[in-house]
TrEMBL record:
Its cofactor is FAD. It comes from the Bacteria. Residues 231-379 form the Acyl-CoA dehydrogenase/oxidase C-terminal domain. It holds the Pfam family Acyl-CoA_dh_N. GO terms for molecular function: acyl-CoA dehydrogenase activity; flavin adenine dinucleotide binding. Residues 15-124 form the Acyl-CoA dehydrogenase/oxidase N-terminal domain. Keywords: FAD, Flavoprotein, Oxidoreductase. This is Acyl-CoA dehydrogenase.
Amino acid sequence: MTATLTHSVGIPDSEYRALRDRIFEAIWSELDPLEQQIEDAEQVPHDIVMPILDRIGALGLLVPREYGGSGLSIAQYLPIIAEFAKVQGGLRVIVHVHNSFAHALSEIGSDRQKADVLPSTATGRNSVAFALTEPGFGTGADLGSTAVREGGDYILNGEKWLITNSDIASHFIVFAKTTATDVSAFLVPRETDGLSIAALPETMGCKGTEHGRVTLDSVRVPATALVGVEGQGNEHLERALEISRVFIAASSLGTSERALELSIAHAKSRVTFGKPIGTRQAIQRYLAEMATDVYALRGILADAAQKWDAGERIPAEASMCKLFGLEAVGRVTDRALLIHGGIGYTRAHPIERLYRDARLNWLEEGTPTIQYLVTAGRLLDGYAFSDAFETSRTN
Ligand SMILES: Cc1cc2nc3c(=O)[nH]c(=O)nc-3n(C[C@H](O)[C@H](O)[C@H](O)COP(=O)(O)OP(=O)(O)OC[C@H]3O[C@@H](n4cnc5c(N)ncnc54)[C@H](O)[C@@H]3O)c2cc1C
């Protein structure tokens, strides 16, 4: 049985500010000092990081309060995931996937799945990963994995790869075909017989997080493992990815904000020909363009969050946020590198890492092409995204 779909209204402002300040403080005093270690070892030290994330409440941000989480609204969550993106991409990715797919389960999971998994997810004892992408097939509904009903069970077979948090996940939301055309979603515990996990090579940026290969070899799960309704996996997938695309755009915002801050500081301190480079019009133009991207991204994110929190679906808006976010963070990190000159290309400076981290935003939750297809498809179907000016006038 699927619970009613609702959007969280969030928590009182004073409580939110205390939580956010606590998390920001720990990000800069406890997690930022780990950056070099993570980049060098290409491994997030989970034994250090997860207890910190649990202590500051960063693992249950989108878990409803009745399941032991903080129950933040989307508008309250976005600044927090943006702040993680400033520090180190691998940490951001862990927190993003953990919260995003706990949120998905809280929206489309059965009451039993939520009761079984969410309370321990809020503390980091459990973590839900998202297993859609396959080596032999394409994006979304183009799946080779199958789930065949056998008595009261389903038998799953298939191959997934690039599955983030595959080293720490306790559960995978696995998408598989239940008929030649219908897709369904299943909540599969890591320890289930027939499920095996192998590491893939280290990534360009967002270092230290595992994005492994998950093989399903005659994995038997009970019918209660079905997430949502059989055959409606595509609808569930769209719902989960819709808001998760907004989270990726917020990550693009955090990376962009940090690159801009560092660039302003560098423009003031780097002196050539007797003057700070920030006095040169060419550098000023870069800074102004970067700030414009940051400002615009903040604006569309605030609009998307407000609509979602008010209970609206935002299929086109979410794809537009993700598309604009990845283009904006691309431009901002390009310009930040140019402002920093050669030293910015070395590991002496965080710009080099921000540049690499940003490139994952292209791929997570669908490539730019997929965002064009989703947005244009909606427009051609007659979808009209609501007018933010109208919304703000009537609120
Ligand atoms: C670090 C990392 C973490 C990831 N984490 C996860 C995760 O946790 N769970 C998960 O399920 N996936 C995850 N992914 C996978 C990610 O979502 C995909 O890589 C991404 O959506 C692109 O899909 P693909 O790799 O299959 O590329 P392809 O589908 O092979 O695409 C290659 C190119 O072809 C284009 N293309 C493909 N099909 C079409 C089409 N029909 N029309 C037009 N153009 C098309 C694409 O836009 C792209 O430019 C992760 C990827 C990375 C790199």
